[in-house]
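Supplementary Methods, section 5.1.

A reviewer requested that the exact input to the structure prediction be made available. We therefore reproduce it here, unchanged from the version used in the analyses.
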Amino acid sequence: MDLVAFFVLLLIILFSIFVIYKKTQSVGIYSFKALITPTLLIMIGVLNTIALWNDAFGFISWMLTFVLLLIAAYFTKFLIN
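The structure derived from this sequence is encoded token-by-token as follows.
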């Protein structure tokens, strides 16, 4: 079951990255800073999924999530309008 869940997670991540890339291309913005917030939010989901699968919800997992969320919040000023 974990292998199926892993492939579903991988497909969802690849699809979301593709959608984000196409939206930035359609607007005409090719800035790396505009892609940081969505990338970090995807990383938060991956981090928490891996922590859930490994029963590793602890201080380090929470702190990494918090730091990624703070960095993502900072870079929202570069998002596409």
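The chain has a mean pLDDT of 85. These observations are discussed further in the main text.
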